[in-house]
Amino acid sequence: MKRIALALTAVLACGLASTAGAAAAPWVEGTNYVVLHPAQPTTVPAGKVEVMEVFSYACPFCNKFQPVIHELERSLPPNAWMVFLPAAFNRAEDWPMFQQAFFAAQSLGLAGRTQQAMFDAVWKTGQLATVNPATDRLRHPLPSLQDAARYYSQLTGVSTRKFLAAARSFGVAMRMREADEQIVAMQVPGTPCIIVDGKYRIVMQSLSSANALVGLVKYLVTKASAH
Q: Where are the beta strands (DSSP E) in 98-208?
């Protein structure tokens, strides 16, 4: 996790330069990306290539990585589709709650238009903050599912009761279990992590800029499209 954090710091420091020429870089299997065995199922329509970010709203590196993700989304070719998979492996920092809230929002059709707002609630406005900025320590208590439901209600108008019912549904419980199993199967070492087509896991610490990340993703989308 520490290596990923250092790599992401370097990526962000290099900024969002033009991606011209990035796809021509000599990307190396085993160095820049890992082929997953077995490949994981994807959720995008036929003919599309899935580009997945494994993330958590409570992950500070995912929050700092948001500008790169926005640039990546804008840069994807027409046959690529960006999706998001919330991780829950950091229980001490409330990640399971945010995972549950994400899948509830997704089941209600809210996740796509609330993604950035949720990061902002944790790291900018503090409405769902996990860390006390005055002490740099975890808050006690941490934000609850009810807190998240109230915030989603403020954002979208969906009642807290309806949101909580979705969050506590069998379907969301199953989706959480499947996500945990998939993250283990993909051998995700930390967040954020990018997976292309359920087959290729990017080695984040091998990259030195946002430009390189976008170029590598485009290369892997092309590679996946050829098979």
A: 131-132, 137-138, 193-196, 200-202
pLDDT digits (tens, 9 = 90+) for 174-210: 999 999 999 999 999 999 999 999 999 999 999 999 9
Burial grade of 184 (CB within 10 A; 0-12, 13-18, 19 or more):
exposed
Among 147, 129, 149, residue whose Cα is nearest residue 139: 129
Q: For residue 195, report the phi and psi dihedrals to the nearest 5 degrees.
A: -120, 130
Nearest to 148 by CA among 107, 106, 89, 102: 102
Spatial separation of the C-alpha atoms in residues 36 and 12, rounded to whole Å: 27
CB 98 within 8 A of CB 59: no
Whether pTM > 0.85 for this model: the answer is yes
- Report the C-alpha gap between 191 and 53 in whole angstroms: 8
Helix (H) or strand (E) holding 206: none
User: Tell me: the pLDDT tens digits for 86-133?
Assistant: 999 999 999 999 999 999 999 999 999 999 999 999 999 999 999 999
C-alpha 60/C-alpha 63 separation (Å) is 5
| Domains of the chain with bracketed CATH | 1-48+62-85+194-227 (no CATH), 88-187 (3.40.30.10)
Given a contact cutoff of 8 angstroms between Cβ atoms, the answer to whether 209 and 17 are in contact is yes
Cα separation, 55 vs 10, whole angstroms: 19
- Calpha distance 105→163 (Å, rounded): 7
